[in-house]
């Protein structure tokens, strides 16, 4: 003989309610995790951008120290053919980590390369970078060779 156990009407559908709460909590946690990792990824790209832009500036400074003139073409930093063996100021033309495209090169009046900047639009995420460079927008970040070196 099988006895039918009656749990009462209050027990019906509780598993479904708990499952819905679980999905809701899981979705909230997943959303906050995705937001946190995307912000962290953006900060890492910003740091890579600063590092790469400073590589260009150091290469321009070293080129100027050796030649007493700045290059008219950025490719002159890759291989200085006037010396043997070829002197390299940059290993390769690095891409902008923020856009994965080439940097925008800054030229002076004599058509010499004096720096680089990015084509990225938007706000800088990292508060330390905003404070250090006194700007909140990528478009306002210019990495140029120091004026005291050229003069």
Brief synopsis:
By secondary structure, this protein is mainly alpha-helical. The protein contains three helices and three strands; from the N terminus they run H-E-E-H-E-H.
Would you kindly provide a written description of the structure presented here, covering whatever features stand out?
It is a single chain. By secondary structure, the protein is mostly helical. It has a domain at about 50-150. The protein is built from three helices and three strands, in the order αββαβα. A three-stranded antiparallel beta sheet has the order 1-2-3, covered by helices on one side. Strand 1 (about 105) and strand 2 (about 115) form a beta hairpin.
Topology:
Elements: H1 14-67, E1 104-107, E2 113-117, H2 127-133, E3 142-144, H3 147-150
Antiparallel strand pairs: 1-2, 2-3
Question: What labels describe this entry?
Answer:
151 residues; mainly alpha; three-stranded antiparallel β-sheet; 3 strands; 43% helix
Overall pLDDT level: 84
Strand order of the largest sheet: 1-2-3
Structural class: mainly alpha
Cα-to-Cα separation, first versus last residue: 104 Å
Q: Care to count the β-strands? A: 3
Poorly predicted segments: none
Helix content: 40-55%
Number of helices: 3
